[in-house]
Structure formats: C-alpha cells, structure tokens
Amino acid sequence: MSSSPQGWPAPQQPYPPVPPPPGAPYPPAATNGLAIASLVTGIVCLVPPLGLVLGAVALGQIKRKGQRGKGLAISGMILSLVSTLLVAAGFALGGFKEFADGVREVKEDVASTNSAFSLRTGDCFNQPGGTADQQEVETVKSVDCAKPHDAEVTGTFQLAGSAYPGVPAIEKQAEERCLKISDQYALDSWAVPENAVTFYYHPTEDSWRQIKDRTVTCAFAAEKGKLTGSLRADAATLDADQVAYLKAMNALDAVLVTEPEGDPETALDANVTWAGSVEKALGGSIAQLKGHTFPGASAQPVAEVVKELEKARGHWAKAAKAPDADTFWIHYEPGYDALPLDLGKDARAALKLSTKAPAEPTD
C-alpha cells in the first residue's frame, strides 16, 4: 500500500464483504438495470430503437451474471420494436413532416432571437419596427446575412468614465468612431449599397446605471428597404492582394473627403493645407501600391493606376504652394480630373473586387 504525496498513509481500502453464516440463505439476485431501462424506453417511446439495444445487452448480462429481469428486457424490446415500426411508417407516409417542420421553426425562432446587448461583429439582424426611427431596443432577431435584414454589425467600442456622458456626447463619439469602424469592416466601399447608412446602439442612462452598459455597437443599416448579403470586406474575407489595393486607395479617399467648406477666395490657407495633405496621401498610396507585388492579370492595371496617381500628385503639389486663389484653381481642377470616381476599375476587376463605381454626389 503506497503513501500519499504528503507522506501520510493512503486511505484504507474497504474490506471484502463478509459471507453469510452456514445455512443462511444468500440474498436474491438483483434485477438488471438495463432490462428496466429497456422497458421504460419502450413504454414512453424515447428513441424507439434504443429500447431494442438496451434489451439485447440486458439479456446478455442476465445470462452471464445470473440476474433477474429477462421478462422486462423482452417486453421492452417488443414495445420498442413496435414503436420503431410505427415511427418509420409515419415518416414514410409523411405523417410526421408537419410536426418536424413545426419543431424546426420553433427552434430557429428561439435561436434567432437575441438580446441587443449580445450582438457581435458580423451579425445580421432585424430590429422591431425597422431602423428608420430612433428607439430603445432590448431584443433583436438575428438572421442569416444572405436573407433580407435591417442591419449588420461592423464592430463595437467601449465608453469611458463612471458618470453617464449624456446622449449628445455619446452620439458625437459614436458618429466619429462608428464611421471609422465601418470603413475598416467594409474596405471595399464600392460594394456598399447606396441605401446603407452608419447606425449604432448606445447605452441609455438606465442601462448605464443598472447593468453597467458601456458598449456602443456600430452597424450598417438600411435607410430604405432591406440589406441583402454581408457587407464585410476585410482581412477575414479578402485575400492579401485585395486588402493591399483597397488600403492604398482608401487612404487617399479619406483625405479627399476632408476638403474645406470655404472656397479658396475666403479660406485660402485651409485649402492650401488640404491640398498638401492630398499630395502627401497620394505619395503614400503610390508607395503602398509599388511596394506590393500584385499577381498575374492584376499587375498591369494596378501599374496604370499608379501612373494616374503620379500625374495627379504633380497638380496637388503645385496647388499646395499656390500663393492666391486663382493659382490654386488652376491646379485644383486638373488634379481632381486626374482622380475620377471610377479610377482603378480595371484593377478592381482583375482583383475580383466590386466594379460598380460610386455615383456622382448631388448638391
């Protein structure tokens, strides 16, 4: 007998059973448990074939161990056989189809109803009443992204602080950060439909206080109608060549949209500074595209994009040094003309990205 690791003697083993005194009757043989299980399974029709298996195993054990329960095992096997035949006949005749369909629908409904607090990146869902109006929401219905849906989660972020910031402050953060999160989630902006807008859930004062809710959930939502198909286009769904191209071009787009509201005549310094940012962004995009080896059929069209960017860069460099509004306009217009909305369409086609160029903005 070995000792325990601590050096104490190991617990004693139980003593063997003491045999009955001479002449005393031995206790009656025990009833086999599997025989009982076979009978119960056969009576209540729980997985009908299981009763047959349990009964057969029980008969073997009864014979080998001298146990009781042979009649129970046989009865369970007979009942299970009858149940199995009835179920088989029901499926063959279609009698269980409606029942099975109903069970499946209930299961899908239960599985697809989620708390709004449990939404995760990539989830597609429907919101009660749609997403057009602002409302407090506790539950949403998750759906397959391939089916029509109201919104698709693009990511989340946490609000800081112990005191509730107030709705205006939260919305300001959400609008800025959700836009960036959604841009990273859908790198291929050309594939985002026109009816998709940035959408978010944020904590209410009650959820902040009662359940310590600090999460802002960002999403794309259908401004009109429904969205169909996932809008996700990031490293999780794209290959390295697609990601390299999109990141290079998106960096330029991010600067172009920051154009000052005032014209050069009234805000020359702001426009000149912005032109310098565009020229710098063009340099970065060119370097990224040149620094990545694009394969096969995509190599030449990407090289053509680089040539266009280099041409545009010259104009923006001159606009960034314009001493007056007239000089700025001279280089601004050809600089923009060198960056048409459909720039890189051939490269996109070769890389198997969306080739539906964005529409001209309307005033």
UniProtKB/TrEMBL annotation:
Keywords: Membrane, Transmembrane, Transmembrane helix. Residues 103-218 form the Septum formation-related domain. The keyword S-adenosyl-L-methionine does not apply. The chain crosses the membrane at residues 34-59, 71-96. Residues 34-88 form the DUF4190 domain. Residues 1-10 have a biased composition (Low complexity). It comes from Streptomyces tamarix. Residues 1-24 are annotated as: Disordered. This is DUF4190 domain-containing protein. InterPro entries: DUF4190 (IPR025241), Septum_form (IPR026004). Pfam families: DUF4190 (PF13828), Septum_form (PF13845). Residues 11-24 have a biased composition (Pro residues). It comes from the Bacteria.
